[in-house]
């Protein structure tokens, strides 16, 4: 982490400015600005390949953006995942990444490591400082298992949990680092409607406990029920951002998802043969 250079705007916890990510000739994310405020749940939606996960990876230090900056509480983040977690951003992954052969409790404890100060020697010698830290971590982990409804599973191996509970465990592990902002990448993928509703309630409870949430999801009902604001990415750029009502009513969003041309799209370009003419938002060549 570098020293703060800009005081945070009142209420703004995350501020991404002009984030661009290129992979060779492909621009996956183009100059995206996005803020998340304290106490907010913000949705990030867009068709497959729109750049949503790449944008998350830029926020969490997995990728170093080609251009742009990411600030958290006014501090520019170092693009290193462990420093981003330490700063207060935690995430889950589109493809579940648990330690399959560790128990539910052990997986949750792994998430605590950025919040414990005990070093390697203390852990090896199991001194009084280590034992106290271990007790505190275990108490906090148990609270999180209670919070996510996994208490009865504490000693089960992660790989033996049903899919929906594996997703919950990912959230419990992310919360163990005590984040100010939680990034969820498709938290309801593969869930049945009952599990999806439970996840919706869990995300609201996380927000109510003081952690802001930025969530990528393809389930529109989930997004529009839950989010204070929704941003739409199409072909790497932010098409629109607003309340659920504003976004749902926007013809360009409908076109981007359904591939239906809008009036603007049907107007012939000045130079139809010009390869630089951008394709319509719904075009996923
Ligand atoms: N590491 C990488 N190297 C090269 N191209 C990449 C890389 N990661 C992503 N891409 C490309 O960037 C574009 C955006 O991908 P990304 O996974 O961010 O989209 P997405 O909106 O999350 O899609 P989905 O909803 O399907 O998960 C895609 O064209 C993808 O193939």
What do you see in this structure?
With 285 residues, this protein is of the alpha/beta class. It has helices at residues 52-59, 81-87, 104-110, 120-125, 128-148, 163-175, 193-208, 220-226, 244-249, 251-258, 263-266; strands spanning 12-23, 26-37, 41-45, 67-72, 75-76, 89-91, 181-185, 212-216, 229-234, 237-242. The strands form two sheets. A six-stranded mixed beta sheet has the order 6-7-8-3-9-10, sandwiched between helices. A hairpin with a 2-residue loop joins strand 4 and strand 5 (75-76). Helix 3 (104-110) crosses helix 5, helix 3 runs parallel beside helix 6 and helix 5 packs across helix 6. The relative contact order is 0.16. The structure holds adenosine-5'-triphosphate. Residues 23, 26, 28, 46, 48-54, 94 line the site of adenosine-5'-triphosphate. This is ABC transporter ATP-binding protein. Residues 259-285 are annotated as: Disordered. GO terms for molecular function: ATP binding.
List the helices and strands and how they pair.
Blueprint: E1 12-23, E2 26-37, E3 41-45, H1 52-59, E4 67-72, E5 75-76, H2 81-87, E6 89-91, H3 104-110, H4 120-125, H5 128-148, H6 163-175, E7 181-185, H7 193-208, E8 212-216, H8 220-226, E9 229-234, E10 237-242, H9 244-249, H10 251-258, H11 263-266
Parallel strand pairs: 3-8, 3-9, 6-7, 7-8
Antiparallel strand pairs: 1-2, 1-4, 4-5, 9-10
Bound molecules: adenosine-5'-triphosphate.
């Amino acid at each position: 982490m570098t020293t703060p250079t800009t005081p945070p705007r009142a209420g703004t916890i995350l501020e991404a400015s002009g984030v661009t990510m290129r992979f060779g000739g492909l621009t996956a994310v183009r100059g995206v600005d996005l803020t998340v405020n304290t106490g907010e749940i913000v949705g990030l939606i867009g068709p497959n390949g729109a750049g949503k996960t790449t944008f998350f990876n830029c926020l969490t230090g997995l990728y170093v953006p080609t251009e742009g900056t990411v600030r958290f509480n006014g501090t520019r983040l170092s693009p290193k995942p462990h420093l981003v977690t330490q700063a207060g951003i935690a995430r889950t992954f589109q493809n579940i990444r648990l330690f399959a052969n560790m128990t539910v409790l052990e997986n949750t404890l792994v998430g605590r490591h950025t919040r414990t100060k005990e070093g390697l020697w203390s852990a090896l010698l199991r001194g009084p400082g280590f034992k106290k830290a271990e007790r505190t971590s275990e108490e906090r982990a148990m609270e999180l298992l209670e919070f996510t409804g996994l208490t009865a599973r504490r000693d089960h191996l992660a790989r033996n949990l049903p899919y929906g509970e594996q997703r919950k465990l990912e959230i419990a592990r992310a919360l163990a680092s005590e984040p100010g902002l939680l990034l969820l990448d498709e938290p309801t993928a593969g869930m049945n409607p009952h599990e999806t509703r439970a996840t919706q309630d869990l995300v609201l409870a996380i927000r109510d406990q003081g952690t802001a949430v930025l969530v990528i999801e393809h389930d529109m009902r989930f997004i529009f029920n839950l989010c204070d604001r929704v941003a739409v990415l199409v072909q790497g750029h932010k098409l629109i951002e607003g309340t659920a009502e504003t976004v749902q009513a926007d013809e360009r969003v409908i076109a981007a998802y359904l591939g239906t041309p809008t009036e603007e799209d049907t107007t012939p370009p000045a130079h139809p043969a010009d390869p630089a003419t951008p394709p319509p938002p719904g075009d996923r060549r």
